[in-house]
Amino acid sequence: MTRASSKKYFIKTYGCQMNVYDSQRMAEALSVAGYQPVDAPEHADMVILNTCHIREKAAEKVYSELGRLKPLKQANTDMIIGVAGCVAQAEGEEMIHRAPLVDMVFGPQTYQQLPNMISDLDAGRRDGARVRLVRTEFPAEEKFAALNAAPRQPITRAPTAFVTVQEGCDKFCTFCVVPYTRGAEVSRATTDIVAEVQALAAQGVCEVTLLGQNVNAWQDRETGLRLDGLLDALAQISGIERLRFTTSHPRDMDDALIAAHGHNAKLMPYLHLPVQSGSDDILKAMNRRHTRAQYLDLVAAFRAARADLALSSDFIVGFPGETDADFDATMDLVAAVSYAQAFSFKYSPRPGTPAAEHETQIDEDIKTRRLAQLQARLNAQQEAFNREKLGTVLPVLFEKPSRQADQMSGRSPYLQPVHVGVDARHYDALMGRILPVRITAAHANSLSGELADG
User: Which helix (H) or strand (E) element contains residue 31?
Assistant: First the structure.
């Protein structure tokens, strides 16, 4: 099978919501070039792995996946195999050397060049040569300009969408690879973001989540508008009923964005505000640029602006040099804040980061024990938050049929999954609507309910 006869592609996405967005934009670029999606690499003549470099052994997992693709490449030598994303950015030329089946390696700031890369590969093959491409520059403005020129194509009927408004990071936390794989902080222009969201609203999207590595660092370079003003502008778009943003850095939080949670009715009462540790010593070692007290002051300010705000966070346990007292400080902070949801991980060294060179690495068994303790407390808080909703009526955005028959799934304003008993004949009528649901059961990670009268 050749691309001329099929033009089929398969994209496998790893990692964060921004990678999901990037994969969608790659799919749109391929669609414009005449390619059609398929649901398995066996049916494709182009396979792209959009990779994430945050977790431990990320590169090795990608190489393992490439090993599974090797028989497909051997059976169809015309197949194009590409590796995109942050592992591609970090590995660069090394990936070409270690995995000879790979035809193109491109970072998260260069995927807008995908159609041109494919043309270059095809031109080389017509000349009887095998071309292998590595594109890992950081032309973020060029990427955003390309995104603005290419209108969003409807991918699914989903009533929700991600929109990247900011990329990169200037904070250089000592454990993190993002500044090295995504580059410096760059913000898209207000007019371009508004145009994209208007196009999504015209397709039936009613909830938009703004994405950025440090999304609250977003600022329009021409007007100086900050994120609160952007959210106000998006709230005026007809058809947009819900707005969210992620991920925030405490250092970039300002009073206007805090106040927006009190006056912007379309901004949902959910905030992801990573802290990583409750110990000032560890926060300093991480180069987080804020203290425990400053973080707690932010939490208090947000809750003063919106009393029912659901807070989420990220935690790392076993960071180099973390003592029992440091870990106890994290547990105390969790108790003080009471989170609706949180994500917690054992520290794993990322090559090239300062923390990886720290002399005082923590034993794996200590990390495991601390993570279990932390997750037990966080899980208990999440379950308690869910139980608080029992008997209440929440506006639920219906997103898709559930795996269980005669049931649909949606999201509460607090981002909780909500499963609602619905006759399958009514799925289409309910899709994308926000309706009152009476909560009848609370689970560890979700809620169940029934449509409320009226």
Answer: helix 17-32
**CATH no., domain 141-388:** 3.80.30.20
Contact criterion met (CB below 8 Å) for 163 and 21: yes
Beta strand spans in 165-307 (E): 166-167, 186-187, 207-211, 242-246, 270-272
Give the residue extent of every domain in the chain: 8-137, 141-388, 390-451
pLDDT tens, residue by residue, 400-429: 998 888 899 999 999 999 999 998 888 889
Report if pTM > 0.70.
yes
Alpha-carbon distances, residue 320 vs 323, 354, 356, 422 (angstroms): 9, 11, 8, 50
Cβ atoms within 10 Å of 260's Cβ, excluding its own: 23
CB atoms within 10 A of CB 55: 12
Residue 57 confidence (pLDDT) above 70: yes
Q: Domain 8-137, what fold?
A: Rossmann fold (3.40.50)
Calpha distance 432→430 (Å, rounded): 6
Q: Where does 388-446 have alpha helices with state H?
A: 427-430
The per-residue pLDDT for range 183-237, each reduced to its tens digit, is 889 999 999 999 999 999 999 999 999 999 999 999 999 999 999 999 999 999 9
Cα gap 422→451, rounded to integer Å: 8
Structure tokens, 418? 């909500």
Strand order, beta sheet including 104-106: 36-37, 8-13, 46-51, 80-84, 104-106, 133-135
d(CA 30, CA 24) in angstroms, rounded, equals 10
- Give the span between the Cα atoms of 209 and 17, in whole angstroms: 10
Is CATH 3.90.1150.10 the classification given to domain 390-451?
A: no
**For residues 419 and 394, what is the distance between their CA atoms, to the nearest angstrom?**
12
The fraction of the chain above a pLDDT of 90, given in percent, is 71
Tell me: cis bond preceding 291? Omega within 30 of 0 counts. Answer: no
